[in-house]
Specification:
Keywords: Membrane, Transmembrane, Transmembrane helix. This protein is α/β, with parallel strands linked by helices. The protein has one domain. The protein has 10 helices and 5 strands; from the N terminus they run ββαβααβααααααβα. It has a 5-stranded mixed beta sheet with strand order 2-1-5-3-4. A hairpin with a 5-residue loop joins strand 1 and strand 2.
């Protein structure tokens, strides 16, 4: 699922709409049509959950490299850089869930990653889509709070407005005016790809 920050338009790339190839082609067609966007995700890094796993799978299926995702931010890392690793308790439900709760963001339909993977294995995709939608919308709210400097965490900022300065610089750059921040929840896509 992708949601464009500037207009809140959302696109779903789902196994309900076709097979793995269809999902990957749809996603990378979006990437190709929007080359200068910054993609923001949660745990959106490395070879386990980052764009690399999608790129590798695309190459395996189609024998060529996909359109390149040029700019990636991991929202969890961005918040950690401002507030430290313990900005919210991980607990049983994870940092994202607890951060949403702390900031009064709805967790209706929110499922943990293990439950989402279990449902994907059973080909019960609709609850996974609903959970993904909730997470993406919640991440948009977190971005709003960060930009407006009113994100609630269990810790005070550790670096004097470093994050706000970065966001301000991005917002006022010429490329930002041409491109929107895009939120992508890659963990669910990764789970679906592993299962398929």
């Amino acid at each position: 699922m992708i949601s464009e920050y500037n207009n809140r338009n959302t696109q779903v790339f789902s196994a309900l709409d076709g097979d793995e190839e269809t999902v990957l082609l749809g996603f990378y067609n979006y990437v190709q049509r929007n080359p200068n966007r910054t993609y923001v995700g949660w745990n959106f890094k490395g070879v386990t959950y980052g764009p690399q796993i999608l790129e590798r799978r695309y190459q395996e299926l189609f024998g060529k490299k996909p359109p390149r995702i040029n700019s990636v931010l991991d929202l969890d890392d961005v918040i950690e850089s401002e507030y430290g690793k313990l900005y919210v308790d991980h607990g049983d439900k994870g940092k994202m869930y607890n951060l949403f709760t702390l900031n009064d963001i709805s967790t209706l339909d929110f499922l943990g990653g293990m439950k989402e993977a279990e449902l994907c294995e059973k080909n019960d995709i609709r609850p996974v889509e609903q959970s993904t939608d909730r997470k993406v919308r919640g991440m948009m709210n977190i971005l709003d709070f960060l930009i407006n400097r009113n994100l609630k965490t269990t810790r005070k900022t550790i670096k004097h407005h470093m994050l706000q300065t970065k966001i301000h610089n991005i917002e006022n750059s010429s490329w930002y005016r041409l491109a929107a921040i895009v939120v992508v929840l890659i963990a669910v896509i990764t789970a679906v790809i592993k299962i398929l």
